[in-house]
Please model this.
Amino acid sequence: MITFLSIQIANFLLLIFLLNIIVYRPIRNILGKRKDDMASTEGLTQALAQKTAQGSQSLEAHITDTRKQGNKEREALRSEGNQEEERMLKDTYSLVQDKIDKARGELEEARLLARDSLQSEVKGFSANLVEKILGRGI
Model:
């Protein structure tokens, strides 16, 4: 029985040795490579996620700066437009004032002409009136 048992033990050990060489080592190597690949892929994924986050932050900062610059330009254009509006209003007011002054001058001139004309006619009217009232010539 000892020989049968020793043959069984030797057979078992040989089987474990052969299985280790043929089956278990390649599986462990494959699992080790898979583990290394997973770690490498995870590291690459984290690096890409970090780059994406940095790019996103950079983009947001650029967008914010661009909006600020756009607001400054809009305010500058608005201010320039207001100044142009004020200048145009002043020019228009000055033009209107000149026309009003010219019209006042023309009216004053017409008034003076009418007054002179009426004063010269008043003498004739008064002489006619005196003749009609008195019934004789002066």
